# Entry
Amino acid sequence: MLEGKFEEASLLKKVIESIKDSVKLCNFNCSQSKGITVQAIDDSRVLLIALKIDSGSFQEFRCDRDLVLGLDLESLSKILKQGNNEDYLTIIAEDSPDSLLVVFEDKKKDRISEFSLKLMDIDSDVLTIDDMEHDCSITMPAYEFAKIARDMKTLSESLQIIITKDSVKFNAEGQIGSGSIILKPHTDMEKPDESIKIELNQPVVLTFGAKYLNDIVKATALSSTVTIKLTDKAPALFEYRLPSGYLRYYLAPKFDD
Amino acid sequence: TKKQVSLMSFFGKK
# Structure
């Protein structure tokens, strides 16, 4: 049996809102040691999502036997919208479940709401992702990266990222013209999450589809910072830290035709 | 022009 209680429903709500536009169906793998893990790839096979909600993200977590919950995220999202952000949220499943029980408890009122979501058998490829060495890594405020991704998409369907040891440059060239944004590393002592940190083994220039970057920044509400790891001619990793766990996106780059 | 590549060319199936 699985029983996981979140202190606030908002965490799972934000996670599902971050991924449901990229992948519609996915398997939630549940185990006592790893909590909940998900690996899912979008239909175009360009963006991969790797989610880990450790048991530490839950107020209470027990999973007697490893379970796979096949979920339609659009449906789960509809059910999660029934509860308030501050409610306790408990998810419950039997050992061979055909449905997931979702329970919201209002902390002030005596109100408990229960929903049952039908589960599905989902056949999905699992990809092997080794811990890669990266050429460079940038950590920056998540909202700032989101603004760049959204703004630059209005100029071009591609966004070029150029990292050197003393700057990161975002470059867009489109039909109406072009634009670039240059950020320099700095440390904000009072608000560390406002800092921009660049770690560099070697400079990297990569181009990504603006559409996919805009899917990724839907996770902005999850974390105050985002870490972007880039390697020449390889998929990029965008990581949003959870209180205990992470949401990672792997995005394949665009290459010269 | 730049061409979008698939993740499958980088990651193998388990």
